[in-house]
Design goal:
heterodimer; A: alpha+beta; four-stranded antiparallel beta sheet; 49% helix; elongated; B: alpha+beta; D-amino Acid Aminotransferase, Chain A, domain 1; 2 domains; seven-stranded antiparallel beta sheet; six-stranded antiparallel beta sheet; 13 strands; 33% helix; globular; ATP-grasp (chain B); metal ion binding (chain B); ribosomal S6-glutamic acid ligase activity (chain B); RimK-rel_E_lig_ATP-grasp (chain B); RimK-rel_E_lig (chain B)
């Protein structure tokens, strides 16, 4: 006997790779093991108010894109009469509205949906700003330099320097107040950091709180250490990005640039939404060109198609289990899987009634064909036409009676039905109605079991999201193909053999 | 307390209906899965299957090997040859028409005699030449073959049944199935048709299976629909009185099919002709498991005993028959 080692190695390998792939997807793409999990998304609306001066207007608003912690799902802008485009400038995204002539109060709306996503991959790389050193007038220069020197003494790294600078502004109140006459504290901090050779800039973030309206952006200081950066609160010196802080404008540049208007103001309102993770994920991957092997990158229609295709191995596994471990007879090896696929489209009860109706009527008509003594291919072709005719008639009848459910009968695979009728009919003639009931009932039972498995939410979720499951199913099917034990129904069949031993 | 009783009765009911796999295994009962994996796919090379699935090929290799088979009257391969049917059978009193690739006894038409009125079928009805031609057309179209592929019709001489089985079989042909494993006859059974089986010798259609002692061919047990019985359901004869004559010749005929076909796990169907003795009817590369129930014995111990012999000590066919009659008999 040949060694079974390579076989078990292959099965083990398939199983391991399948498990590893699934775990990898769970970890890197944040896909939950169970369906129905919700993902938090934020809908944020920015409203730009200004007074137009009766000439051409160009408004350019900084807008957020996918960043650490948040994935941008979709964005819209509403503003009657204005032309709109989303442009990238200096490594940052901006929404630009333009109009030839406008007068009076104007409102522009920009709305974006952000998914809370710890695995977000920033769409635009974060680059440190170029270092620029301003020469300041006295007495500001001296005061600033003193604060900087003190902070440099107490610090070791760019981050500690930033922290010490902010703290120093608190300690040396008089100097701070002097400096504040010229520019804001955060501007001074950034400038002094630049002066010390540390790339830094001011960024604007939005604190996300459910249901808030008319919010303003909060200023933060972004300090770079090589490629890494940290955010600092310019008031408290606290380091790090609060989890509910969305960076709105995080490249050099103003939040709003306005030409042809005055008295501008930007305010924000936001609501939190819970979305099923799969909707959130399809939005996330919809325009993601990254090399990620995910079905979510396909168009929705193909996704729906794949959802069913990836279920077939589950149905096939059920057939394997029922035939090899239990020993149920079916007519046609995988006919039950195809019937189960049709049940998914029609729902179980409608599908069962439709199936029995078509096969039953088909058997009646087929028994007449027996008398005509036709050649096989012609006879099956005739049965196919009969099946199509029956489906058409039943659909029309169902529609006339107002049973729209009945229309779903068209989902049945017609060729398969024709072969089923042919096989059952021959079985009836040769082995009698009992065998037809056994095999037909067995097929339906397996089809129902396959349907229940394939229609299960958890299984649908797993097969669609974790392609590794397919390898595990493969390993399982191969393992069952190696089973030499008794089938369940054989235990019943061979039962009379044991009775003698008792006596 | 009541729960315990209920549980027991539930468990007893289960044990009443289902055999414990451990006990079946201790009896050495061969299951379908093990038969397929450990015997059929291991000992029967796929390329040899057509030899047994096609009865015409079986007949040809049997004739070459000198194995006794029913006389071949004619073969109809094409639709246009169907018109020649009346000419082919003109000189035969009794004959049967069967598909070369039929399975499970499907499509076999038996004519016991012919006169001016037409052809007398075995079930008593009379058929015209048109009916026979239609039957042949159906065979050619593949009505009875696996997968519906085009087939060939074989016309062969009727077997003159040995009278020794009269009363044991209802209408049809009693035949003897012998499982031949690597050239050793390991288990045998006689299949008797009944009114339930419509004169067919198929066990799942209701024929009676009688287990036969490999040692001398006498009846051991009988089953119908997988249940033990003692009397023939139609004729009421005690099945335990059955004893197959020409036993040595029958076993030797079966065993020679191993060399002839090359199949290591084989079912041979043999009938007894009044004049020519045992005749090979057909071979089966996937013999069923009911033979174990008819014998009340599992196949596995005997199969393993043969496997343990190994290929080293090659025996002649008659030595193998001798070995089997000695070791697999219930008498000792």
């Amino acid at each position: 006997m040949a060694s079974r080692f390579p076989f078990y190695l292959l099965v083990g390998l398939l199983f391991l790779v399948g498990t590893a792939l699934s775990i990898h997807r769970h970890m890197t793409f944040d896909i939950p093991w169970l369906p129905g999990e919700q993902r938090q998304t934020w809908s944020i609306e920015a409203r730009v108010d200004f007074v137009a001066q009766g000439e051409e207007v160009l408004a350019s608003l900084a807008i957020p894109s996918t960043q650490q912690g948040f994935t941008q799902l979709n964005q819209t802008a509403a503003s009657p009469g204005y032309g709109l485009s989303f442009v990238e400038r200096d490594g940052a995204m901006r929404a630009e509205w333009s109009i030839r002539r406008a007068e009076g109060n104007q409102q522009l709306y920009y709305r974006v949906d952000m998914l809370v996503d710890p695995y977000a991959i920033p769409s635009l790389p974060v680059r440190p700003p170029a270092i620029r050193v301003n020469v300041e007038q006295e007495p500001f220069a001296t005061a600033a330099n003193q604060i900087l020197e003190r902070a440099i003494e107490r610090s070791a790294t760019p981050y500690t320097l930033a922290r010490e600078l902010i703290a120093e502004f608190g300690n040396q109140r008089q100097k701070a107040e002097l400096l504040a006459q010229q520019k804001s504290k955060s501007m001074w901090t950034v400038q002094l950091l630049q002066q010390a050779g540390v790339p830094a800039r001011r960024v604007h973030g939005l604190f996300l709180e459910d249901g808030r309206r008319r919010q303003q952006l909060t200023e933060y200081i972004q300090v770079f250490d090589g490629e890494d950066y940290e955010l600092f609160n310019p008031e408290t010196g606290a380091q790090g990005q609060p989890h509910n802080l969305l960076l709105w404008q995080y490249h050099s540049g103003p939040i709003l640039e306005l030409m042809g208007g005055s008295n501008s103001n930007v305010s924000f309102s936001m609501i939190q939404q819970e979305q099923p993770f799969n909707i959130a994920l399809s939005q996330k991957f919809a325009d993601n060109q990254l090399l990620n092997f995910s079905l979510y990158s396909l168009p929705l229609e193909e996704q729906a198609l794949f959802k069913n295709i990836l279920l077939i191995p589950v149905g096939v596994l059920m057939v394997v289990l029922m035939r090899i471990l239990i020993g149920i007879k079916t007519s046609g090896t995988f006919m039950p899987v195809l019937i189960a696929l049709a049940f998914i489209q029609t729902s179980l009860i409608t599908g069962l009634i439709g199936f029995l109706l078509i096969v039953g009527t088909g058997l009646l008509l087929r028994s007449y064909l027996s008398y005509l003594n036709l050649l096989l291919v012609a006879r099956i072709s005739a049965v196919i036409i009969i099946v199509i005719g029956m489906i058409a008639i039943f659909s029309i009848m169902a529609y006339q009676f107002g049973l729209t459910e009945g229309m779903k009968i068209t989902f049945f695979p017609m060729i398969i039905l024709a072969w089923t009728i042919e096989r059952m009919s021959i079985l009836w003639e040769e082995e009698g109605p009992h065998e037809v009931l056994v095999q037909g009932g067995g097929s339906l039972l397996v089809a129902i079991v396959a349907f229940l498995a394939m229609n299960n939410d958890v299984i649908r979720h797993l097969t669609f999201n974790f392609l590794g499951i397919q390898l595990m199913l493969m390993a399982l099917v191969m393992l069952i193909g190696n089973y030499t034990g008794y089938r369940l129904l054989e235990l019943k069949r061979f039962r009379p053999m044991l009775r003698d031993d008792h006596k | 307390m009541s729960e315990v009783i209920e549980k027991q009765s539930w468990w007893q009911r289960l044990a009443e209906r289902y055999a414990h796999p451990g006990r079946l295994s201790r009896m050495g009962v061969l299951g379908m899965n093990r038969r397929n994996i450990s015997y059929i796919s291991r000992y029967n090379p796929r390329r040899l299957f057509p030899l047994v699935d096609d009865k015409l090929k079986t007949k040809q290799i049997a004739l070459e090997a000198g194995v006794t088979v029913p006389e071949l009257i004619g073969v109809i391969r094409e639709q246009h040859e169907v018109r020649d049917l009346a000419g082919i059978v003109a000189d035969c009193a009794g004959f049967c028409i069967k598909p070369a690739n039929g399975s499970g006894g499907k499509g076999i038409l038996v004519i016991t005699g012919q006169d001016d009125g037409g052809y007398h079928r075995s079930n008593g009805s009379i058929a015209g030449i048109g009916d026979l031609e239609r039957h042949v057309t159906n065979i050619l179209a593949g009505l009875f073959s696996l997968g519906g592929k085009a087939d060939v019709a074989i016309i062969e001489a009727l077997i003159n049944f040995d009278d020794c089985f009269s009363g044991f079989s209802y209408e049809g042909v009693p035949d003897t199935r012998v499982i031949v494993f690597q050239g050793f006859p390991v288990m045998a059974m006689m299949r008797l048709s009944t009114s339930d089986s419509n004169g067919k010798a198929n066990l799942h259609q209701g024929a009676v299976g009688v287990g036969l002692d490999i040692g001398d061919g006498h009846a051991l047990r009988a089953v119908q629909f997988d249940k033990p019985i003692l009397l023939h359901p139609d004729t009421g004869l005690n099945l335990m009185n059955l004893k197959v004559p020409h036993w040595q010749t029958l076993l030797e005929l079966s065993v020679s099919c191993y060399e002839m076909s090359g199949l290591g796990y084989l079912g041979t169907d043999v009938v007894l002709d009044r004049f020519q003795g045992p005749m090979l009817l057909e071979l089966n590369a996937r013999p069923g498991l009911t033979i174990q129930m008819a014998n009340g014995r599992g196949l596995l111990p005997r199969l393993r005993q043969i496997e343990a012999l190994g290929k080293k000590n090659r025996m002649t066919p008659s030595q193998r028959v001798e070995y089997a009659r000695e070791h697999f008999s219930e008498r000792n």
